[in-house]
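STRUCTURE REQUEST FORM
Protein name: Beta-barrel assembly-enhancing protease
Source organism: bioreactor metagenome
Requested output: structure tokens
Priority: standard
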Amino acid sequence: MYYSDPEKFTTDELIKAAWIFSEHVTDPQSLKKAVEWAEKVNMNVQNPQNTYILAKLYAKTGNKDGALLYAKLSKYLAESQGQDSSLATQLLETLK
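Status: completed
Returned output:
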């Protein structure tokens, strides 16, 4: 796998790969790897987009508690920064 060593990539590269996986991948092992990338990114940079991607990946991998936590954080960050929070809001609706 191209991104098997996340230390070789920037946070921007990792979060872009994680986003693509969150949108198009269904393989559990691949999604698990994408969760690792998104977690690494969120340890360094928490913003509405990064936290949403991690929430979506948690939802796809069955981690409902993690998905709820990060979707709420994404919504809060977006609203507090005057950004669109609709993706986080939609994800929260699916997690009820």
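Reviewer notes: The CA atoms of residues 8 and 14 lie 10 Å apart. The mean pLDDT is 94.
Form closed.
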